Amino acid sequence: MTAAASTEQLKATAAEAGRRLADASAEEALRWAVERFGDDLIVASNMQDAVLIDLAVKVKPDVSVLFLDTGYHFAETIGTRDAVDTVYPHIRIVNALPEQTVAEQDSEYGPKLHDRDPNKCCHLRKVVPLRATLARYSCWVTGVRRVDAPTRANTPIVGWDERNGLVKVNPIAAWTDEEFDDYLSRNGILQNPLVGEGYLSIGCAPCTAKVAPGADPRSGRWAGQSKTECGLHG
Ligand code: SF4
């Protein structure tokens, strides 16, 4: 499959693989994606950990990794990205940048847009750069899991991303928290040090808080606001 494949061809590919790989393991899903798309595929990571990257590298050592470099990340997240780049020397990290720097955005929209209109801020700093980057690929791979949130309960292993117009593979969609933690510890996978401090779902610094013991991990995202998703996986 090449980047020249039509949207209809890609949709048909996603539908067929979605049925066939409905119960596939993470490795089987990644192997199919790499064999089908090769360099026309990119793995997304928010640098909370390198589980998905580690799985992908075992199938394609030089896999491309997409990081949304919003300009609002914790220093620890940037440090994790740089550590990942060192530990997996053959990967290609693609830093997707917003059109405006934080200073330019502040000057056009006023400071702290994230506090006043987080949907607009996420649109400018995440959704648009993601769409622009994904436009260069036919398939993206995410670490979305069904247990992340009720809105993700029906996440397929392979599906069609209508919003961005490409195949979307979620190799660990069916993993429980126990399976995830087991893979992380057994393989000594890199993890953002903030996780150990109680930040269980890490996004931009202004919109990420520590999570109380036993609480929903995503309750630390946009705490105190009605927003619960960036708009990346809708
Ligand atoms: Fe802006 Fe917060 Fe969204 Fe980051 S998570 S893009 S700071 S609103």
TrEMBL record:
<dbReference type="InterPro" id="IPR002500">
    <property type="entry name" value="PAPS_reduct_dom"/>
</dbReference>
<dbReference type="GO" id="GO:0005737">
    <property type="term" value="C:cytoplasm"/>
</dbReference>
<keyword id="KW-0411">Iron-sulfur</keyword>
<comment type="function">
    <text>Catalyzes the formation of sulfite from adenosine 5'-phosphosulfate (APS) using thioredoxin as an electron donor.</text>
</comment>
<feature type="binding site">
    <location>
        <position position="207"/>
    </location>
    <ligand>
        <name>[4Fe-4S] cluster</name>
    </ligand>
</feature>
<dbReference type="InterPro" id="IPR014729">
    <property type="entry name" value="Rossmann-like_a/b/a_fold"/>
</dbReference>
<comment type="similarity">
    <text>Belongs to the PAPS reductase family. CysH subfamily.</text>
</comment>
<feature type="active site" description="Nucleophile; cysteine thiosulfonate intermediate">
    <location>
        <position position="230"/>
    </location>
</feature>
<keyword id="KW-0408">Iron</keyword>
<protein>
    <recommendedName>
        <fullName>Adenosine 5'-phosphosulfate reductase</fullName>
        <ecNumber>1.8.4.10</ecNumber>
    </recommendedName>
</protein>
<comment type="pathway">
    <text>Sulfur metabolism; hydrogen sulfide biosynthesis; sulfite from sulfate.</text>
</comment>
<feature type="region of interest" description="Disordered">
    <location>
        <begin position="215"/>
        <end position="234"/>
    </location>
</feature>
<feature type="binding site">
    <location>
        <position position="121"/>
    </location>
    <ligand>
        <name>[4Fe-4S] cluster</name>
    </ligand>
</feature>
<feature type="domain" description="Phosphoadenosine phosphosulphate reductase">
    <location>
        <begin position="43"/>
        <end position="209"/>
    </location>
</feature>
<dbReference type="GO" id="GO:0019344">
    <property type="term" value="P:cysteine biosynthetic process"/>
</dbReference>
<dbReference type="GO" id="GO:0070814">
    <property type="term" value="P:hydrogen sulfide biosynthetic process"/>
</dbReference>
<keyword id="KW-0560">Oxidoreductase</keyword>
<feature type="binding site">
    <location>
        <position position="204"/>
    </location>
    <ligand>
        <name>[4Fe-4S] cluster</name>
    </ligand>
</feature>
<dbReference type="GO" id="GO:0004604">
    <property type="term" value="F:phosphoadenylyl-sulfate reductase (thioredoxin) activity"/>
</dbReference>
<feature type="binding site">
    <location>
        <position position="122"/>
    </location>
    <ligand>
        <name>[4Fe-4S] cluster</name>
    </ligand>
</feature>
<dbReference type="GO" id="GO:0046872">
    <property type="term" value="F:metal ion binding"/>
</dbReference>
<dbReference type="GO" id="GO:0051539">
    <property type="term" value="F:4 iron, 4 sulfur cluster binding"/>
</dbReference>
<keyword id="KW-0963">Cytoplasm</keyword>
<dbReference type="GO" id="GO:0019379">
    <property type="term" value="P:sulfate assimilation, phosphoadenylyl sulfate reduction by phosphoadenylyl-sulfate reductase (thioredoxin)"/>
</dbReference>
<dbReference type="InterPro" id="IPR004511">
    <property type="entry name" value="PAPS/APS_Rdtase"/>
</dbReference>
<dbReference type="InterPro" id="IPR011798">
    <property type="entry name" value="APS_reductase"/>
</dbReference>
<dbReference type="GO" id="GO:0043866">
    <property type="term" value="F:adenylyl-sulfate reductase (thioredoxin) activity"/>
</dbReference>
<dbReference type="Pfam" id="PF01507">
    <property type="entry name" value="PAPS_reduct"/>
</dbReference>
<keyword id="KW-0479">Metal-binding</keyword>
